[in-house]
Amino acid sequence: MAPGEKKSQQPRKRFYRARAHSNPLSDSHFPVPISPAHIDWSLHFPAFFKSPLEAESEKIDLMHKESTSDLEVNDKEFSRDCCSEECVSKDPSLNHEADFMENVSVKNPSEVANVQRGQPKVSFADIGCGFGGLLVKLSPMFPDTLMVGMELRDKVSEYVKDRIMALRKENPGQYQNISIIRTNAMKYLQNYFQKGQLQKMFFLFPDPHFKERNHRRRVISVALLAEYAHVMAVGGILYTITDVQDLGEWMKACLDAHPLFEEVSSQEQELDPVVTLLKRATEEGQKVERNSGDTFQSVYRRVASSSAGC
Amino acid sequence: MEGDDGLNSDKVVAPALLALHPLCKFVVVCVGSQLRAYNLLGKCQVDVKYPSAQSRHEEAIRTITFSGEGKLFVSAGDDKHVKLWDTETWQCTKTVHASKKVSATAFSCDSKWLLYADKFGVVYAMSTKLQGEGLASSVVLDQPVNLLAHCCSIITSLKCTADGKFIVTADRDFKIRVSVFPKDPLQGAHEIEGFCLGHTSFVSCIACIDVGLKSQLLVSGGGDGTVRLWEIETATLLDTVDVRDEVGIADGNFESDAVIQASAITCVCVSCDGSLIAVGVESLDGVLFLKCDLKSKRLMLLQKLVLAEHFCPTSMQFDKNGWLWLVAGAAQKTDSCKENAVTWVKVVSSSLDDTPVFTPVELESIPGGSLLFETLDGTDSDVNKAFALAEAATIAMKNELSKRQYSNEHREFRKRLRNDKKLQRKV
Ligand SMILES: C[S@@+](CC[C@H](N)C(=O)[O-])C[C@H]1O[C@@H](n2cnc3c(N)ncnc32)[C@H](O)[C@@H]1O
C-alpha cells in the first residue's frame, strides 16, 4: 500500500475480479478516440487542465456553447473529478467502433487542441498496468509529470480508477497526475499519443503467452516496437521486466533487433531511480518477490534513426 | 443456398478489379480466379501463360498492380499465391506462397521490390529479380521478408510513394500508416513517419497523388462515406468530403436512411495530373468526380456521372490520356464449384478543363472496339447480375471490415456466462 492509502477508502480487489486474460487480438468494444487531438485530457487531469467547457464559458460565446452541449454534464463536479473511461465514453468525439455515425455531433478537435496548446502532455505510459501499483509509486516522485496506465481488462481498469479517485480524495492536491485508460495498447496507442510524446514507457510483467502460436499476442514484438518508438521521444526510456525467462529473452531480442532502441548501460540504470521500482512497485512484482522468483529486465533508450540503420 | 438472383449466400463474393498499364499498353480485368488481359497497342487478346495448368489462381484474385514503368505485373488473393508476371511475354515468372490470404500489393518505385500485405496485417517484401539475374544468393533473396505489421488488422490497401520515400498502408482499424521506405527492405521498415487519423470507420482504399509536388498527397476513402485528402509526410488531414451528403442530394432523397447507411467508399483513383479524383460508392450507380485543387489542397465535388442504370463500379483507373476505365462486377463460386463471374467494362473521357465534361467513349474510339469488351467482359455481362453481384461483394467487404455489432442484450447475456461474473455472485 502506498503512503496515504487508507484501508477504509480503498476499493477492494475482490469486487473487481476479472478474467485472468483477455485476448489482445480480438475485436474490442470500448470507445476509442479518433485521434489524440480528440481527447479531452481535462477529464483525466482536472487539476492540470482547463476543461473545454470552462475555457468556453470564459469566452461567453453562447453560440459555441450550444454546439458543444453534448459535453455538458449536469453534475459538473462529477465529470471533473473522475479520471475514468466512463467520462471519456461520454465524450461524443469518441468513436464507438462501428456504430459511430454522424448523428453523434463531433467535438471539434481543433477546439480541444487550442485549449490544450501549451498545456502539459502525458509523458509516461504504463502498458498493461494491472492494478496500478507503479502509477501510485511514480505519482509523488514526478508530481509535475502526467502519466497514464493502459489496461485491457475493464474490471481491472475500473479498480485502478476507483483507487486513484480514493487517493485523490484522501490526499487533497495529490495523485492528480495519474490516470487510467481502458484500451488495447497494442492496437490503439496512436489514438492517444502524438509522435514523440512519451518520455517513458513501462511493460512490467506482461502476459507471457507461452505457446508459440500465441506469440503474436505478446505486447513486445519487433513490429510493435516500431509503434512504440513512434510515440516515444528520442532519448525516452522503455522499461520491461518479467519473471518468465523465455519472455525476458524474447523482449531483449526484439529490442536488440530494432534499430530505434539501444540498451541503457548498467551504470546509467543504477542512477535511474525508476529502475529500482520495476521489481516491486507492481502487484505482479510483489507476487514474484514473495515467491522469491527470478526476474529479467531490459531497459532501452529510444534513439534517433541513423541514416545507415533504417 | 442459391437465391432467385443466382447468388449463393454461403460463398465468398469478390469484386472485379481493373488495372491499366502505365503507358496504356495493356488493360487487365480480374474477376474471381480469372485474369483477362487485352493488348491496347496490338488490339488483341493477351494469352496469359501460367507455368502449368495447376499453377493458375484457384481462388478469387483480390489485388492486381503494374509496376511503375510497366514491365512487371502482380496478381494475388484468397489462394495465398502471389504471382509475378513479365508483361513483355505475359509469363508468370515467380509464384510465392504467402501464409495468409493476400489483400494488397505494390511495387517499390524502382520496381526492385514487390510488397504484399495479408489479412493478418503483415506486409512482406521480396526482390523482383529472377534467379540468375546476378543474384549471389537467390535462395535467400527469394524468400519474402517481414517488412512491417499492423497489429492484427486487415490491410486494405498498400502503396509506395513515387518519390521512393514512404510506404503507405491502410487498415480496417480506421488507420493509415506512413512508414519510411527502408534503405534495405530485407532489414524491415522500422521507422514510422506518421499516422493519418480521421476516418471513423474502416479505410477501404487509398491513392497517391504523384505529380512531383514538394509534399506528396494522398486520397483515402472509407466505410464512413468520406473521401479525405492528406499530406503524407506530416500525416495532416487537409480536407474531407462527405460523400453521403452528395449522393443524397444528387438523388434528391437525402432523408432516406438507406442512402445514409449504405455509402461506404469502394474505390478511389486519381488522374495522372492529380487534378481529378473518381470515387466509387456503395450502391451508387455511377461515379462521383471530385476536383483536387493542388494549390489550395482542397477537394470539391464536381459531378455525379451515371453511366447506365445499375452500373455500380467496383474498380477503376485513369489512363495517361485522361480516360477513366471502370469495371463493375464480381464473382462467386457456385455449389458445383464453377465460377459465376460477371463483369461490365466502361470507358469515360474527360475534357481536361477547369470544369471538365465527362462523356462515355464511343465504341469506335476504343482500340479494338468490341473485341476489347469481348475479352474483358468474358461471356457474361448481364447488367442486373453484375449489379447484384457487385452489391453482394460490397456487403461482403463491409461485413469483413466492420466491427461486429453486439446488441446490449447480447452483451449482457455474454457477460452472465463469464466466469468472473459467476465468481462475483458467489462472493
Ligand atoms: C500480468 S499483468 C501485469 C500487470 C502489472 N503491470 C503488474 O506488474 O502488476 C498484465 C496486464 O496487461 C494487461 N494487458 C494485456 N494485453 C494488453 C493490451 N494489449 N493492452 C492493455 N493491457 C493489456 C492484462 O489485462 C494484464 O492486466
Can you describe what's shown?
- Chain A: It is an enzyme of class 2 (transferase).
- Chain A: Belongs to the class I-like SAM-binding methyltransferase superfamily. TrmB family.
- The complex is a heterodimer of chains A (310) and B (427).
- Chain A is of the alpha/beta class.
- Chain A contains 13 helices and nine strands.
- In chain A, the strands form two sheets. In chain A, strands 5-4-3-6-7-9-8 form a seven-stranded mixed sheet, sandwiched between helices.
- In chain A, strand 4, helix 7 and strand 5 form a beta-alpha-beta unit.
- Chain B has a domain of 140 residues: Methylamine Dehydrogenase, Chain H (7 Propeller), CATH 2.130.10.
- Chain B is built from seven helices and 29 strands.
- In chain B, the strands form seven sheets. In chain B, strands 1, 26, 27, 28 and 29 form a five-stranded antiparallel sheet that branches. In chain B, strands 2-3-4-5 form a four-stranded antiparallel sheet, covered by helices on one side. In chain B, strands 6-7-8-9 form a four-stranded antiparallel sheet, with no helix packed on it.
- In chain B, strand 27 and strand 28 form a beta hairpin.
- The C terminus of chain B is likely disordered.
- At the A-B interface, helix 8 and helix 9 of A face strand 13, strand 16, strand 17 and helix 7 of B.
- The complex binds S-adenosylmethionine (SAM).
- S-adenosylmethionine binds next to strand 4, helix 8 and helix 13 of chain A.
